[in-house]
């Protein structure tokens, strides 16, 4: 791809490093930025630099935050007896968007994956144990394992269950099954099988 400017080429190469963006899309975005007022482009650049340099991890749950404690951990309106364990911040956002959960979170920062060289020590598991062990902390009654239904997710959940057995708390996992509005004939065998095993009673 020929570029009329080395500066444009450099910008396109950097934008193309973002996930899901190829060279053509990157070029389109860069040319769009050139059409905008310089102040708008400057504002975008400053916000990205500020985000990268100032966003940190919550010291309690490891969620992304502007402060030492994220807004969820700092809130007095949350149910502190519940901890929902998730893989990363995207899962926190997804669950929060349902408006159905009012407890706390614990972000692992990944899942166990021997293929990628990620083991238990690479995750925020020990800090979860410390939260449950802390006598001056929240009185945790239940830990919800909200991990993806993959082999790696199930491996991580199994490992966590073994680690958490020492505590007198309820350990649960999110329900898995046929999605609302889905047809049974299009559901895969594993999902359909889990739906049968995890069936609920009509009230």
UniProtKB/TrEMBL annotation:
A matching Pfam family: RecR_C
Against PROSITE patterns, the record matches this protein to: RECR, TOPRIM
Coiled coil located at which positions?
A: none
Q: Where is the Toprim domain?
A: 81-179
Keyword Zinc on entry:
yes
Q: Which InterPro entries match?
A: DNA_Rcmb_RecR (IPR000093), Rcmb_RecR (IPR023627), Rcmb_RecR_Znf (IPR015967), TOPRIM_dom (IPR006171), TOPRIM_RecR (IPR034137)
State the Gene Ontology terms under molecular function.
DNA binding; zinc ion binding
Membrane-spanning residues where? Answer: none
| The keyword DNA repair is assigned to this record | yes
**Mapped zinc finger ranges (C4-type):** 58-73
Please name the GO terms of the biological process aspect recorded for this protein, alphabetically: DNA recombination; DNA repair
* UniProt keyword terms in alphabetical order: DNA damage, DNA recombination, DNA repair, Metal-binding, Zinc, Zinc-finger
| CDD domains registered for this protein in UniProt | TOPRIM_recR
Family from the record:
Belongs to the RecR family.
Purpose of the protein: May play a role in DNA repair. It seems to be involved in an RecBC-independent recombinational process of DNA repair. It may act with RecF and RecO.
This protein is called Recombination protein RecR
Q: What species is this protein from?
A: Larkinella arboricola
Gene encoding the protein: recR
């Amino acid at each position: 791809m020929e570029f009329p400017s080395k500066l444009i080429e450099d910008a396109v190469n950097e934008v193309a490093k973002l996930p899901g963006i190829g060279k053509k899309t990157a070029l389109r975005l860069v040319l769009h930025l050139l059409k905008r007022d310089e102040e708008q482009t400057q504002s975008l650049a400053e916000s990205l630099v500020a985000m990268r340099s100032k966003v940190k991890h919550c010291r309690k749950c490891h969620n992304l935050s502007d402060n030492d404690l994220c807004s969820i951990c700092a809130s007095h309106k949350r149910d502190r007896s519940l901890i929902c364990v998730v893989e990363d911040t995207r899962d926190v956002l997804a669950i929060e968007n349902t408006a159905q959960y009012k407890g706390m979170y614990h972000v692992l920062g990944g899942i166990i994956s021997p293929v990628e060289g990620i083991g238990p020590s690479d995750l925020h598991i020990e800090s979860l144990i410390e939260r449950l062990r802390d006598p001056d902390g929240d009185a945790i009654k239940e830990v919800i394992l909200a991990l993806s239904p993959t082999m790696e997710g199930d491996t991580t959940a199994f490992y966590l269950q073994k680690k958490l057995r020492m505590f007198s708390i309820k350990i649960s996992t999110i329900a898995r099954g046929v999605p609302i509005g889905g047809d049974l004939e299009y559901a895969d065998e594993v999902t359909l099988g889990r739906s049968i095993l995890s069936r609920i009673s009509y009230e």
